[in-house]
């Protein structure tokens, strides 16, 4: 059986930062990702990041990904396994993974799970027609493979992802007919909403989709207004002719490995669903298992990177690699606190309070 000091499952922003911090402390790190390329969500994020200089403000996600990958490939303490899927994890910190045509097991001293999140679906008529996409799938098609999904789009959801992807669709030459939002207010940053509105896209709050129209593929959508109880208002139905329906209705943390090892789990709606209970060092209730990034609660990529740093530092320190530990820990905790401050981080703060309570 193969061995590792620290195994990290997931090569997105959280996993990459966890690997770099732990390796810089001196720990031997094995980093797994099921994709053929590193980066997770960063590989399709062409927009510039907000935040401070530490969180790469003003830099595009694809550029951040390239910088982190270069550091990882140069670091001799990091062993990289791409196109390798971790299938199972056990309480004694053994993981099983598939790589190529081989099934392997690895005994680890510590495990950091940074598996990210999956897109949520929305229930409506004909939602299985070709032409109904998740926003992440649309970003992957356009920004990774250079393929446009259609010509005329209805965006469902006005959070930051919905607004950003709408703008990217227009940059690619598509027409966004409308953005609809079930809530009475826009969910994303005003700066993103203002950009799409200036380009003539209506953002219809208190609206939902009732049905996708078409036989072989999407040819349109029926939308409706919602009342204060979130129920469709009869007589407000309207058809919009589109060939793409793009869903940006949230993400669910990918937590299967935590269930497998028996971590205490709680369903926290503001964090996106079931998440593992953990301490300030991001160690779960199963000793030696840590969580970071969207698997701990859905947030922006900047928060995922800082959580990765905290988890990587904590796991390394628990193995005796603790140079400048107190200083770095204080710095990272302050950084995440600042990032979650103010009205933007209210939902996350609320979720963390519920989790701790």
From TrEMBL:
Entry GO MF terms: oxidoreductase activity
Record keywords, A-Z: Oxidoreductase
Pfam families registered for this protein in UniProt: Pyr_redox_2
Domain FAD/NAD(P)-binding: 5-308
SUPFAM superfamilies: FAD/NAD(P)-binding domain
Top-rank taxon, per record: Bacteria
InterPro entries assigned to the protein according to its UniProt record, in alphabetical order: FAD/NAD-bd_sf, FAD/NAD-binding_dom, Metab_Enz_Cyan_OpOx_G3PDH
Keyword Oxidoreductase: yes
Protein's UniProt name: Sarcosine oxidase subunit alpha
Gene source species: Desulfotruncus arcticus DSM 17038
């Amino acid at each position: 059986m193969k061995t590792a000091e620290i195994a990290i499952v997931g090569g997105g922003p959280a996993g990459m930062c966890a690997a770099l911090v732990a390796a810089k402390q001196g720990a031997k790190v094995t980093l797994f990702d099921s994709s053929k390329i590193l980066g997770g969500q960063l590989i399709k994020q062409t927009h510039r990041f907000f935040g401070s200089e530490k969180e790469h403000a003003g830099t595009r996600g694809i550029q951040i990904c390239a910088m982190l990958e270069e550091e990882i490939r140069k670091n001799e303490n990091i062993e990289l396994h791409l196109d390798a899927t971790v299938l199972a994890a056990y309480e004694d910190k053994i993981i099983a993974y598939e790589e190529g045509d081989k099934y392997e097991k690895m005994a680890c001293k510590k495990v950091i799970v940074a598996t990210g999140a999956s897109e949520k679906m929305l229930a409506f008529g004909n939602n299985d027609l070709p032409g109904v996409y998740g926003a992440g799938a649309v970003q992957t098609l356009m920004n990774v493979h250079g393929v446009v999904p259609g010509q005329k789009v209805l965006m469902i959801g006005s959070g930051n992802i919905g607004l950003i992807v709408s703008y990217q669709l227009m940059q690619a030459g598509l027409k966004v007919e409308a953005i609809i939002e079930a809530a009475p207010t826009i969910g994303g940053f005003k700066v993103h909403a203002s950009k799409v509105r200036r380009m003539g896209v209506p953002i219809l709050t208190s609206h939902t989709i009732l049905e996708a129209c078409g036989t072989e593929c999407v040819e349109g959508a029926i939308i409706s207004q919602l009342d204060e109880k979130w129920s469709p208002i009869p007589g407000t139905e309207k058809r919009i002719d589109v060939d793409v329906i793009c869903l940006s209705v949230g993400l669910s943390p990918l937590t299967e490995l935590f269930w497998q090892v028996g971590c205490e789990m709680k369903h926290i709606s503001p964090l996106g669903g079931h998440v593992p209970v953990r301490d300030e060092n991001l160690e779960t209730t199963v000793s030696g298992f840590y969580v970071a990034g969207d698997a701990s609660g859905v947030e922006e990529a900047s928060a995922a990177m800082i959580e990765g740093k905290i988890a990587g530092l904590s796991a390394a320190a628990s193995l005796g690699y603790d140079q400048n530990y107190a200083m770095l820990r204080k710095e990272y905790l302050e950084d995440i606190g600042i990032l979650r401050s103010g009205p933007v981080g209210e939902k996350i703060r609320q979720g963390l309070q519920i989790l701790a309570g």
